[in-house]
Design brief:
Elements (H helix, E strand, L loop, with lengths): L3 H16 L9 H28 L4 H30 L8 H28 L2 E5 L17 H19 L9 H32 L3 H27 L4 H32 L2 E5 L2
Antiparallel strand pairs: 1-2
Helix pairs in contact: 1-2, 1-3, 2-4, 2-6, 2-8, 3-4, 4-5, 4-6, 6-8, 7-8
Length: 285
């Protein structure tokens, strides 16, 4: 819970940072893009971190939901306040909607995005991975990681998933000319959340547990960044053509690599602090 305050501060600042684009001339516009990319990476890392906690924690399902729900509401609310400040100070908006209409859509999409982001970590839980104290004897809490879910837990989990699908069904879609556009946007965000967990969170857990040398960890992160950069270049070249490789495609790939760099670095720092406070994600011995 002590991480809630810095996470809320980071989420609030994304709105004011978005408005800073107007204060950078074209030659210095890359500075703003680097700042914005780093902030987006940090926000993606905190969402992945909370999904990791919810999926792999050894606490009861009721306690995990009671902790995660207010954190998501507070973090999302802080981000909306940041965009409300941007709308008030710079008349900044996304599309044709007011900030509160975008906020309503955001809150409707958030539950299903969190659920899809948790799926890869629940797969790790099936293979015995869980978040547990490094010295189990020093923490008297019960370990629920090896216990099958009770009927009450199954009903609670079903209600949570049903609530996520209900929220996305009532999301405002009046600005979309076709309903398929909204569902495509929702699918993209859900895929991004799942990819953050699958290709960022899960490999990082394996890295921290099995690789002890800091240099080998650094080399692994460099390889991941290079692979992400190459994949982004290939995807953008496929859609825009080779003529745009050293123009739009290369620039967007660099921005994607910046987001990926800060995502990995921030998530690594979260897990490192978690270990420093006596907790670690590890498979069953």
């Amino acid at each position: 819970m002590w991480l809630a305050l810095p996470f809320c501060v980071v989420n609030f600042l994304i709105g004011p940072i978005a408005t800073l684009k107007n204060y950078f001339s074209y030659p210095l516009r890359g500075v703003w893009f680097a700042l914005f990319a780093s902030w987006m990476g940090v926000i993606a890392s905190q969402a992945t971190f909370w999904n990791l906690y919810f999926s792999l924690s050894s606490e009861s399902l009721y306690r995990r939901i009671s902790i995660l729900t207010p954190l998501v509401i507070l973090g999302g609310g802080a981000g909306l306040l940041g965009f409300a400040f941007a709308a008030w100070y710079e008349e900044w908006r996304v599309g044709d909607l007011e900030w509160w209409e975008n906020g309503a859509r955001f809150y409707c999409l958030l539950p299903i995005i969190m659920v899809t982001g948790q799926a890869p970590f629940f797969a790790c839980r099936m293979f015995g991975w869980s978040l547990r104290p490094v010295n189990a004897s020093s923490v008297p809490t019960a370990d629920h990681s090896n216990q099958p879910m009770s009927i009450a837990d199954l009903l609670l989990a079903t209600a949570a998933v049903a609530g996520a699908f209900t929220a996305i069904r009532i999301a405002p879609t009046s600005t979309f000319t076709k309903p398929e556009e909204f569902w495509l946007m929702a699918a993209v965000f859900c895929c991004l959340a799942s990819c953050c967990s699958l290709f960022g969170g899960v490999p990082l857990l394996v890295l921290l547990h099995y690789v002890r040398h800091p240099l080998l960890r650094f080399l692994w992160i460099v390889v991941v960044l290079l692979v992400g950069f190459v994949v982004a270049c290939l995807i953008l070249v496929y859609f825009s053509g080779w003529d745009e490789l050293f123009n739009e495609a290369l620039f967007n790939s660099l921005m994607f690599s910046g987001i990926l760099l800060w995502f990995v670095a921030a998530l690594y720092s979260h897990l490192y602090l978690l270990r420093r406070f006596g907790w670690a994600v590890a498979p069953r011995p």
